[in-house]
Amino acid sequence: MRTVLVTGATGNIGSKVVGELRGRGIPVRAFARDRGRAAAVLGSEVEVAVGDFAEPDSIRRALSGADRVFLMCGNDLRQVEYETNVIDAAVAEGVRRIVMLSTVGAEVGASAAFADQHGRIEQHLRDSGVPAVILRAGYLMSNILGSAQTIAQTGQFFVPTGEARMAMIDPRDVAAAAATVLTVDGHDGQTYLITGPRAITHEEVAEELSTATGRAIEFVDVPDEAALAGMAQTGMPQWLAEQIVAVFRSIREGVNAHTTETFRELTGREPRAFADFARDIATPLLTA
């Protein structure tokens, strides 16, 4: 193995993939728009290829000498274009494996744009001919941190999920699974759904946060319209707010209600429970 190019390298998942690979002694190159931010997030010793998903030439330069790619980018109206740019460049550069981070429920034509976008990227990847592994992640535990300020100020968080259950997964476990299929042979051509150990409700999330922080934290179910209005008040773009609500709608319909054994089968250990996430990550932020 030569070098793994990690896209989305300064984000919630990508930065952890970089850490997992470096911990295994694998040469890593981070694809990022801002060298200074990449150094601040990843450390100055990590090789950085400065580029932009919208600039195919910069992607090809970043791929020089790399034989594997971790593919993801943040949610964006141009996400299909951005990620297919990477796939096409990888084909041209002779990359030997792409591991794509997708989402539970990914399907061309899905009602939630995020799921539709991932479905189209998955299809392009399969059609490209590059050996590839698709990791579909369940709802991320870290999504609750979008409500961290509200929780810190009011002791409540407002989400339109009702009693829906979600097989939430810790971002650290997503990264561990990604590092495994990037570096271990025998997974090419597979699509894996990785989840946490239990499907839990946001009421249970509130209970675990209360236990971890030592303060009462309450989940408040709200209508979709109220969730949209709340996100608009934070300055979130309308398209993004609408798609987040669409994700919550799919959660209420049960898209992420079931667990899998895939993470344990890939890594040889159990996935972290939400209680672990609350103790290790959420508590310092919620009590700051």
Automatic annotation (TrEMBL):
NmrA-like domain boundaries: 3-253
InterPro entries in the cross-refs: Ergot_Alk_Oxidoreductase, NAD(P)-bd_dom_sf, NmrA-like
Protein name: Uncharacterized protein YbjT (DUF2867 family)
Naturally occurring in which organism (per UniProt): Kitasatospora atroaurantiaca
Transmembrane feature ranges: none
A Pfam family: NmrA
